[in-house]
Design goal:
Elements: E1 22-28, E2 35-41, E3 43-49, H1 52-57, E4 60-65, E5 69-73, E6 78-81, E7 90-93, E8 101-102, E9 110-114, E10 124-131, H2 136-147
Parallel strand pairs: 3-10
Antiparallel strand pairs: 1-2, 2-5, 3-4, 4-9, 6-7, 8-9
């Protein structure tokens, strides 16, 4: 596991570039009405959450800051699904129903891109890191505690 995404580091949720080479990768929903690009490394670590919505949709997270995400087309095709606290903006294509990215509750200042919606071969998933989203509050508190300065 690279230091930039280990659960013990401050950047577990938010992928940072560090000294890795970053490139823009393209992605889309299933029908192509929604297209986007994200700036990331060629080899990444993704986060797999077991909360109800991530589990049911098969979402594999790559969380990035807003400056590393660009919506290229389809803003008019996006629909928001909100639940629980309403903080997360679960955006999905109104044509095909695929959620290729959203604004996560954990990082409302960024985006979580579904790695499975990036164009084929865009990235290599070097490791999948589990996150206990079923117990979101407790899991987030454990990460915050691990990130706290010592």
């Amino acid at each position: 596991m690279s230091p930039s995404l280990s659960p013990q580091s401050a950047n577990f949720w938010l992928e940072e570039g560090g000294d890795r080479r970053m490139r823009w990768k393209l992605g889309s929903c299933h029908c192509g009405a929604v297209r986007f690009k994200v700036l990331t490394a060629d080899a990444i670590e993704a986060v797999e959450c077991n909360c109800s919505i991530c589990r049911k949709t098969g979402f594999l997270h790559l969380i990035v800051s807003k400056d590393r995400f660009r919506l290229l087309m389809g803003e008019d095709k996006l629909t928001n699904y909100g639940f629980n606290t309403g903080t997360a903006k679960h955006l999905f294509c109104s044509v095909c129903g695929v959620k290729s990215f959203y604004v996560p509750r954990s990082h409302p200042e960024g985006f979580s891109v579904n790695v499975r919606c990036l164009d084929e071969g865009a990235v290599k998933v070097a490791m999948v890191v589990p996150f206990d989203g079923e117990h979101w509050e407790e899991a987030k508190a454990r990460i915050a505690d691990a990130e706290a300065p010592r």
